[in-house]
Task: inverse folding
């Protein structure tokens, strides 16, 4: 496999360049993926990525499971921002079936998705710093990521792979403790983010490492089907929340941060600004929620949403619906739908073909990490090895989303 | 640019396009494998669909002669319109053009489709398996292969309550 890019100098018997193996288990590859690099001194001549170490056959498994059992699979795609994947999947089903979601539920979903986006960007930005040698911001930031985990735990019981929400809304209303945690988070987070920025954004060493490393032009990025912060860092303001609004994102006012050269520094700045925008969106949502009935936390969709337990024990219809949903006897309408949401890494798409049965006929996940990681050889060829490492972490490649 | 205008423009240039459908607002059509690259290039250069959202395949074992369906999701970012193109090929000779000449992003998407369905993309620079092991000799997403790996010899059914 490496033979194709081993270059022998004229009339030379031995290889002039070095082949090194970065990964699959390596502190700099955050996840399990391998790069076989050909380097000449410190300069990277070419690299061949190998992926598939964490391939778990989600698309095949999904053909065997009823629809609500596929949500835990979507958790494990981009596991740093699992709620976005969960809610995206529920939105896909709701689009297929045609369920109307109440406004309050949509705003609650927006809060959860923006918290997940903050969590993912915190990881990515602090890890860019770790790869340049700055370990302190990482420790500050993970305290706050822990607070986001606590919010998820209050709402759905899990911290990382959340399986949050149901088809039609949420499994329970947000408790007083959850609201307190959300308010405490939005109050304390801006100060921490300012501290984080003060450590890194105008830091001489960080700027020298990151500016000019792994740039990509807007034309090449679009041709490679980049989406998300990596595309926005190159100057293209494509954001699924604005272009195909879902879950009432068009009720909110937020801007799309855009970079210029698409290098590591631009990606860092775009993600940083997106975190500020996410905090603003959460605050707007908290304000908008006051105008809605606080007891509403799911849609009226008895075919898909489990009835109240008290009703199951007393009413016949509730008992029948409960049985049908748990035993997977609910058939979904036949049809083909493609729905996408703005994940932390880009456009996460769900291409669902239903044949009218209890499981999908075909489910395909459009995974942004998989699609933009193929540009990695082009980003690092010709640059230094240390630039390649920082570029790899700035792309925010999550192995779960890479391999599915 | 509405779906009707796109359909009109495509049908005038390529009259053999068929199966026009518009589910949930997404215009969809099917093309023959021979004309597929021309249609893709027309969509790219003339209609502005310069973003390849997704490329995947579906296996319909009951459709004899056209079991494998390669699906292209394209997006015109300027006008914010999406479109879906399908190409059906038989499983006996699953040859389709490679979209890598138009979209650099189609490279790994086609490798993944080859890996799981066995679709042969003619003109792909490096068509080999991407997510599965290199020495796998079957295509796992095809409907005839069960979810559990039947080639596995080390799993003892007795221990799993199936002996």
Result:
């Amino acid at each position: 496999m490496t033979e194709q890019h081993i270059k022998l100098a004229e009339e030379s018997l031995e290889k002039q360049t070095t082949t090194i193996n970065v990964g699959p288990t390596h502190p700099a590859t955050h996840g399990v993926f391998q790069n076989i690099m050909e380097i000449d001194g410190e300069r990277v001549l070419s690299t061949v990525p190998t992926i598939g170490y964490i391939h778990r056959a989600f698309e095949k498994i999904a053909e065997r499971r009823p629809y609500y059992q596929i949500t835990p699979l979507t958790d494990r795609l981009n596991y740093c921002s699992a709620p976005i994947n969960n809610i995206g999947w529920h939105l896909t089903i709701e689009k297929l079936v045609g369920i109307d979601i109440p406004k309050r539920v949509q705003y609650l979903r927006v809060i959860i998705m923006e918290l997940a986006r903050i969590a993912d960007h915190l990881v990515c930005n602090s890890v860019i710093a770790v790869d340049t040698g700055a370990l302190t911001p990482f420790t500050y930031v993970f305290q706050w990521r822990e607070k986001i985990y606590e919010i998820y735990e209050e709402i759905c019981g899990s911290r990382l792979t959340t399986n949050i929400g149901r088809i039609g809304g949420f499994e329970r209303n947000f408790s007083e403790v959850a609201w307190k945690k959300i308010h405490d988070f939005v109050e304390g987070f801006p100060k921490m983010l300012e501290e984080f920025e003060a450590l890194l954004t105008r830091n001489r060493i960080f700027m020298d490492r990151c500016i000019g490393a792994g740039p990509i032009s807007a034309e090449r990025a679009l041709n490679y089907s980049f989406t998300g912060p990596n595309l926005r860092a190159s100057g293209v303001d494509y954001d699924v929340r604005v272009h195909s609004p879902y879950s009432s994102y068009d009720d909110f006012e937020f801007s799309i941060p855009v970079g210029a050269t698409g290098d590591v520094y631009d990606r860092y700045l775009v993600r940083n600004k997106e975190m500020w925008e996410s905090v603003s969106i959460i605050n707007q949502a908290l304000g908008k929620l006051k105008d809605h009935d606080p007891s509403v936390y799911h849609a009226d969709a008895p075919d898909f949403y489990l009835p109240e337990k008290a009703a199951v024990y007393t009413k016949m219809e509730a008992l029948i619906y409960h049985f049908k949903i748990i035993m997977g006897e609910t058939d979904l309408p036949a049809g083909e739908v493609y729905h996408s949401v703005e994940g932390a890494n880009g456009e996460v798409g769900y291409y669902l073909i239903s044949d009218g049965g209890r499981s999908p006929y075909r489910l395909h996940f459009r995974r942004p990490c998989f699609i933009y990681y193929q540009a990695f050889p082009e980003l690092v060829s010709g640059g230094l090895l240390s630039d390649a490492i920082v570029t790899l972490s700035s792309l925010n490649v999550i192995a779960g989303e890479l391999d599915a | 640019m509405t779906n009707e205008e796109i359909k009109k423009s495509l049908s005038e240039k390529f009259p053999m396009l068929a199966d026009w459908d518009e589910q949930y607002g997404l215009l969809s059509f099917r093309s023959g494998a021979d004309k597929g690259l021309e249609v893709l290039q027309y969509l790219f250069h003339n209609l502005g669909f310069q973003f390849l959202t997704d490329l995947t395949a579906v296996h319909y074992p009951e459709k004899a002669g056209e079991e494998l369906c390669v699906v292209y999701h394209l997006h015109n970012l300027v006008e914010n319109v999406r479109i879906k193109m399908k190409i059906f090929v038989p499983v006996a000779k699953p040859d389709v053009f490679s979209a890598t000449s138009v979209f650099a992003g189609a490279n790994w998407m086609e490798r993944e489709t080859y890996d799981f369905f066995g679709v042969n993309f003619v003109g792909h620079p490096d068509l080999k398996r991407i997510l599965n092991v290199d020495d796998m000799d079957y295509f796992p997403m095809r409907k005839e292969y069960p979810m559990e790996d039947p080639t596995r010899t080390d799993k003892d059914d007795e221990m799993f309550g199936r002996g």
In short: The interface with chain B takes residues 51-52, 55, 57, 59-61, 63-64, 95-96, 220, 222-226, 236, 238, 243-244, 335-338, 340, 347, 349, 351, 353, 361-362, 364, 366, 370-371, 373-375, 403-404 of chain A (CB under 8 Å). Strands of chain A lie at 18-22, 34-40, 43-50, 335-342, 347-354, 362-366. The two ends of chain A are 24 Å apart (CA to CA).
